[in-house]
Specification:
alpha/beta; globular; hydrolase
Amino acid sequence: MAALEAADLDAEWLVVGLGNPGAKYAATRHNVGYMAVDDLLAESGELLQPVAGHSLTAAPLNVADTPILVVRSATFMNLSGDPIAPLAQQLGIPAERVLVIHDELDLPPNKIRIKVGGNENGHNGLKSLTERLGTRDYPRVRIGIGRPPKGSSIPDYVLGPIDADVGFDAAIETAADAVRLIVSSGIQSAQNEIHSRK
């Protein structure tokens, strides 16, 4: 598969799905950001392709006539910011248009919430992005995975298999919808719509 050239890419938003690369992690709670990206691309049939000189894969999409670039880092979660920040810089995309989709321990399973900024709550992918972008003020689509039972290890829990039930499928679709709404209507309007859903 031919690599994309960053110089040829035109995007107003970078939409980043967080996760870990490789089959071993594909169905884990930590990879729901990757899954939402797949859902976002399913409609158009676009495929993620490597970007020359960057450790990530990307696919250009149009949402409401706005060009966006959907991205998955090819590094492990705790280094997510390493390829994302330089690409955003190269494309001239400010942090407030780097939209990050990630798993969230502090939300019940399958609950979707949109927020801008705030702390990282121990999420290593977000920590890496904050460090490399130089700010916390980027928008996030948070996919609830709940907390592990008392006494369980958080790393084991987030790297454990997701409960892929009907509610989960709907949550991933809602996360993809949240991205479309943020790009087409803005954060406030997207929050009103998504947060009112059951």
